Amino acid sequence: MSPLRRIKAILGGSAGNLVEWYDWFAYSSTSLYFAAHFFPKGDAVAQQLQTAAIFAAGFIMRPIGAWLMGVYADRAGRRASLTLSVALMSLGSFAIAVLPTYAQIGVAAQLGLLLARLIQGLSLGGEYGASATYMSEMAGRKHRGFWSSFQYTSLIGGQVAALLVLVLIQHTLSKSALEAWGWRIPFAVGGALAVVVFWMRLGLEETRAYLAETIASAQRGRTMTLLREHPREFAIILVLTAAGSLSFYAYTTYMQKFLVNTAGFSKDTGTAIMLAVLVLYMLIQPAVGWLSDHVGRRTTMAVGLALGGLATYPVMTAISHAHAAGAAFGLVMILTLCHSGYAAVNAVIKAELFPAHIRALGVSLPYALGNAVFGGTAEYVAEWLKKAGVESGFYIYVAVVMLAGALTAARLRNTNVTSLIEED
Q1: Span 358-372, mean pLDDT?
Q2: How far is CA 74 from the centre of its chain?
Q3: Rounded distance, CA 69 to CA 85, Å?
Q4: Rounded CA gap, 44 and 27, in Å?
Q5: Rounded to whole angstroms, how far apart are CA atoms 143 and 149?
Q6: What's the predicted TM-score (pTM) here?
Q7: Alpha-carbon distance 188 to 362, whole Å?
Q8: What does the alpha-carbon distance between residue 36 and residue 416 come to, in Å, rounded to a whole number?
Q9: What is the pLDDT of residue 277?
């Protein structure tokens, strides 16, 4: 494949991935403003606990979406799966943008919010595996770590975009307008962008690895084949995802609330700190991906998770006592730098463990299960422990799971030389 075609394919896959994750993270970035509209009873912590529960509920559909979309991607093609997933995300975002509040329709508003998040969860469950597979297959062997790192770059980019839109409306609208109706704007923007990406994805080029697969379509993406022939790889991805997803949500989506509710920063300051962190975090990924092409993806991931596990407790404790925005920014950056060892290479390592006929399902399903159990509940566990008066228990929880992931990564084979992705 020519460099120009490869770049076009990577950028096309990245753009869609960015919008998918923007739509997903718009919920978390604006929940400080809309929580009271759907859960008017209780104090701010109780309201956040209820919105965090719906955030976690969205993850229930991710394993289902991963299974359905993984099978679909292995049988109908990566492009077809990517196109369907972004269409569903658009539907969920538009639904939240126009959803009546509790004061207008009572408990139906809460059920509507839950349904919209379930649709988004179904969409995103399929997005990760399909995009990880697509971008890893489109990347050449020599620079596969570098090119596939853009999968997570665009994932973080979606969160950056969600926060950026929030910052813009924070500085454009009055506080009363933002809390009354301005929080709907990010969802409307996300729905519109997803429509644009839907048409872009219709023009994506299919991967050669998928097209070259000789196994009959009906035999591809079979769940029993995955569980019977690749149980070790399934378990490895489950553990790695548990470590990477839990720490990612602790360091990013929950951190915005942690800065406000624990460290005592204002909402605007907390948002600004996380926006600056995420921009640098996003830009770091290609460099770490490039590094993995030279030192090995196994080494990169194992070291990153180990350092993150060791740093989590002392750094989060320090953040909880931080009074200066600059200090909080530096401390959060330490955590995201450690996490980059996982983030930049997680997609390609997982894709390289499976043959083409089962690859999308093999990446999607264990990832979604680990993400649902550990990533999806991260905010809820953190808020529950905070309310129980043992907030530091969350730091220990994150650290232990990350260290388990580091041990698992250290035992991986070197996928730089054992990759099952066929050279194009």
Answers
A1: 89
A2: 22
A3: 8
A4: 16
A5: 10
A6: 0.83
A7: 33
A8: 49
A9: 94
